[in-house]
Amino acid sequence: MVRLLPLIVAVPLLGAALLVALGRHVRRAVAETAGCACAAGSAALAVGALVLTHGTAVTWAGDWRPHHGAGVGIVLVGDRVGLGLAALTSLLVVAVLAYSWRYFEEPPRGHAGAFPALVLLFQAGMCGFALTGDLFDAFVFFELMGAVGYALTGYRVEEPRPVQGALTFGFLNSLGGYASLLGIGLLYARTGELGMAQTGRRLDAAGGPDALVTGAFVLLVTGLLVKAAAVPFHFWLPDAHTVAPTPVSMLLSGVMVELGVYGVARVHTTVFAGPGGIPAAHFRRTLLVLGVASALTGAVMCWQQRHLKRLLAFSTVAHTGLFLTGLALMSDGATAGVCLYVLGHAGTKAALFAVTGILLDRYGSVDEHQLHGRGRGAWRLGLLFALGGLALAGLPPFGTALGKALVEEQADWLPLLFVPVSAVTGGAVLRVAAGVFLGAGPVPEERPGRQETAGDEEKPETGGLLRWLPAPMITVAVLLLAGALAVGTIPGLAEGTATAAAAFGDHAGYLAAVLDAHHSTPAAEGEWWTGPGVALGLLSAALAVALAVPAVRRLLPSGGWTGPLRRLHSGHVGDYVAWTVAGIGLLSALTWW
Amino acid sequence: MTGPLAALPYATAAWLFLAGVYGMATSRNLVHAVGCLSVTQSSTYVLLLAVGYRRGATAPVFSDVPTSVPVVDPVVQALALTDIVVGATVTALLLALVVQVDKGHGTVDPDELSELKG
Questions:
Q1: Which residue, A398, A336, A401, is CA-closest to A532?
Q2: Which of A351, A413, B40, B98 could form a disulfide with B30 if both were Cys (CB 3.0 to 4.6 A apart)?
Q3: CATH of segment(s) B3-112
Q4: How distant is the Cα of B104 from the closest Cα of chain A, in angstroms?
Q5: Which of A170, A239, A242 sits opposite B93 (nearest CB)?
Q6: Partner-chain contact A577 B21, CB within 8 Å
C-alpha cells in the first residue's frame, strides 16, 4: 500500500493529460465519466492508505534513499494528516465533478475534456502538496495548484468580471510563491538540503536560530499564508470567490485555503520546531495575531455582504482565522480539533456554495436584495441553506461544532473569540436564508454609492435558467452536508484524528520516520463531545439565530462604522500587493522581535 | 570572492524583488504589472544561482573534465530551471487574462477596474 502513495498524485495527472489529448474527440458524458473515475480512484487510494496502514507511509521516488543523512532523493510522506487531506481533497473533487455533471455549461465548445482536466490537475496539485516531504516539491505543487486555480477562476473568460478576479488571485499567489522560493533558497544555502526532515535535522545540529533562519521562515511562510488567506494576505480570496464558477469556489474554500494553513503548520513542525528553528513563543505569537485578525476581519466583512458568494468567501477568511488560532496553541488536542473543524467546514462550506450555485442557475442572481422572497417555493433548498448556516455557526452534532468545541477546551479565553465569530458567519447565512426563502422582513433598500459588490450581474452557469432542481446538484449538496454531520457523529473519526494530530506535532518523530525509518505511534486519547462543548455549540447557534432575526427585520444599525475596513478592499491589484509587503513586515516584526 | 563583493549577488536578489514589488504596487498598466511580477521572480533565479556558486569551479558537466574538478552546485541549477518553467506558465496565463480584461473592459489600467470591492 505504501508503494502506491505516488499514484494518489499520478492518477489525476495522467487523467488530465489524457483528457486534454483526447477531449476533442469524445462526448461530454465520456469525458466527465473519465474525470470522475480518476478522481474517485485517487480518493479510494487515499482512503485505503488511511485505513490499511498505520503510522507514517514514506516513499522515496526511484528508491533514492539518503545515505548517512545525505541524499538527493525526493520523498513523499503520507502521514495521517497529509493522507487525510489528500482524501478530503479527492472526495471533494469527486463531489465537484458530480455537481457539474451535464448542467455546468463550458465555454470551450468542442473540447469536452477541458473542465474535468483542469479540475484533475487542481486535485493533483493539492494532493501533491499535502503529501510531499520536500520543500522544493511543495513549491512546485503550490504553483501547480495556483496556476490551475487562476485558470479555473477565470474559466468564463469571455466575461469581464471573472478575468479580473483571476488576475488578482494570480498576482498575489505568485508573489507569495516567489517569496516562499526565496525562503527555500536561503534554507538550502544554510543546510544544503531541500527535504523537510533533512533541513530540520541540519538546522537542529547547527544550533540556535539566527537572522538568516528567521528570514527564511518569514519568506517561506508568507507564500503559505497568502494561500491560507490570512489577514493581511487575504485580499485575493473574496475577489476570486465572487467570480469563480461555483464548483471551483467549492474547491477553493473547501480545501485549497485550508492547505495553506496545513502548509504553515507542516513546515513549522518539520523544519522550524526544533532547537535550531523558531522559538515556540514567537511562532505562537505570530499565528495568534494573524489568526485573531483574520477571524475578526472575516466575520465583520462577511456580515456586510449582499453578494452571496462573497459573503461565503469572507466567512472562509473568518474560519481560517479560527484554524490559525487553534494551531497557534501548539497542543495535540487543539490540532485534533482544528483537523475535525477543517473536515466539517469543508463539507458545510461546499454545500453552501452548491446551494448558492443552484440559486444562480435558477434565478440568475446571487444578490441578497434581488433574490428577496424569490425562493419561497424552493423549501428544500432553503432548508439545506439554513442547515448549512447553523452548521457554520457550530450547531451540535455537526463536525464544525465538534472541532470548535475541542479547540475551545484548550484555553479559557478561546470561546470569547470562537463563539461570536462563528455565530456572526452563521447568522449572516441564516439572514440570507430567511430573506430569500421565506421572504421575511421588508425588501432591503438600495443605497447607491455604497462601497459594495452586488450579485445581480453574475450569469447562470447552465445554458439558460433552470426551471427545475437538477438531481445531481441537490444530491451533492445533501451529501456534503451529511458528510459534515458524519464528522461530528462518528466516534472512530475523532479517535483517528487525535492520533493523527499527535503524530503531526511530533518534530523528532517525523524526522525519525522519514530519515531513519523509525516509526513510533504516540499515544493519544480521542476527545469526544463534552457538556460544555455542546453548550457552547448551542450557544453560538442560538446567537446566530438571535442575530439573524433582527437583521431580517432591519432593526440592526447599518454598519456604517465598517466603511473604512470595506474601503480597504478596493479591488486594486497594486493596493493588495502593497498589503502583502506590509504583511511580510508584520511577520518579520512578530517573529524576530 | 570575499568582502563586500561576496554579498553583491544577494543584494541584487533583494533589489530585484523590491523593484518588482514596487512596480506592481504602482503600476498603471496590467501588462507592465505582469512584467514586474517577472522581475520579482528573477530575484529567485539570482538568489538560487548565488547560493550554488563556487569560485573557480566549472559547469557541472563531467563529459570532458575529470570528476575531481570542482563544479558549481547542480541542484540549484535544476531548481532555477524548474522555476523558469513555472514563471513562463504563470506569465503566459496572466498575460492571456490581461488580453481578456482589455476585451471586456476596454482598458488595462488597474485604477479603472473596480467592480470587485467592499
A1: A401
A2: B98
A3: 1.10.287.3510
A4: 5
A5: A170
A6: yes
Grid cell for residue A370: 434581488
Nearest of A438, A412, A401, A417 to residue A541 by alpha carbon:
A401
Of A452, A574, A581, the CB nearest to B27: A574
Q: Of A164, A172, A233, A310, which to mutate for an interface test with B (greatest number of B Cβ within 10 Å)?
A: A164
Query: How many residues are given for chain A?
Result: 593
Q: Are A497 and A340 in contact (CB under 8 A)?
A: yes
Q: What is the ipTM of this complex?
A: 0.95
Domain residues of chain B, as ranges?
3-112
- Report yes or no: B45 and B57 within 8 Å, Cβ to Cβ: no
Q: CA of A560 to nearest chain B CA: how many angstroms apart?
A: 12
pLDDT in tens, chain A (593 residues): 678 899 999 999 999 999 999 888 888 888 889 999 999 999 999 999 998 888 888 999 888 888 876 777 889 999 999 999 999 999 999 999 999 886 666 556 667 888 999 999 999 999 999 999 999 999 999 999 999 999 999 988 888 888 999 999 999 999 999 999 999 999 999 998 899 999 999 999 988 788 999 999 999 999 999 999 999 999 999 999 989 999 999 999 999 999 999 999 999 999 999 998 999 999 999 999 999 999 999 999 999 999 999 999 999 999 999 999 999 999 999 999 999 999 999 999 999 999 999 999 888 889 998 999 898 888 889 999 999 999 999 999 999 999 999 999 999 999 999 999 999 999 999 999 999 999 888 887 776 666 778 877 777 777 677 777 788 899 999 999 999 999 999 988 999 999 999 999 999 999 999 988 888 777 777 778 899 999 999 999 999 999 999 998 888 877 778 888 998 998 899 999 999 999 999 999 999 87
Do residues A291 and A325 touch, judged by C-beta distance below 8 A? yes
